[in-house]
Amino acid sequence: MHEYSIVQSLLESCEEHARQNESENVTKVIVKIGVLSGVEPDLLQTAFDTFKEKTVCENAQFIINHQKVVIACLSCDEESTLEKNEFACPKCNSTQVKVIDGEDMFLMSLEME
């Protein structure tokens, strides 16, 4: 389960941001997880709840925003959000597409006191 190592890195990042902002308490952590990121949201939530104890995130709310796959068509230059993992342009049906979002996990924002 690589979610545990992801959460450890996330908590370290939260600690660093809190330190830089002279805060001792993170109240909210918002992340964006792409459907192609390979990260399992339920396992990430469990790992966060497990490892946040005795950190600046101990009382933090953990919010996960799910990012669908967004593609750019190389044939017609249309950007589209895919509802299914069918990698073809919905406008022109070309399979010459580039994924531009939905593959990564990002720390989007922190709220601190």
Structural summary, described in words:
By secondary structure, the chain is of the alpha+beta class. It is elongated. Helix 2 (41-51) links the parallel strand 1 and strand 2 (61-67). It has helices spanning 3-20, 41-51; strands at 26-34, 61-67, 70-73, 79-81, 97-101, 105-112. The strands form two sheets. The protein has a three-stranded mixed β-sheet with strand order 2-1-6, with helices on one face. Strands 4-3-5 form a three-stranded antiparallel β-sheet, with no helix packed on it. The two termini are 32 Å apart. It is 26% helix and 32% strand. Helix 1 (3-20) packs across helix 2. The mean pLDDT is 95.
Q: Which key features would you list for this structure?
A:
single chain, three-stranded antiparallel beta sheet, alpha+beta, 113 residues, 2 helices
Compute the CA-based radius of gyration. Answer: 17 Å
> How would you write the strand order of the largest sheet?
2-1-6
Average pLDDT works out at 95
Which structural class do the helices and strands define? alpha+beta
Morphology: elongated
Order of helices and strands: HEHEEEEE
> Between the first and last Cα atoms, what is the distance in angstroms?
32 Å
Poorly predicted regions: none
Q: List how many beta strands DSSP finds.
A: 6
Sheet with the most strands?
3 strands, mixed
- Give the helix proportion (percent range): 25-40%
Instruction: Work out the helix count.
Output: 2
- Share in β-strands: 25-35%
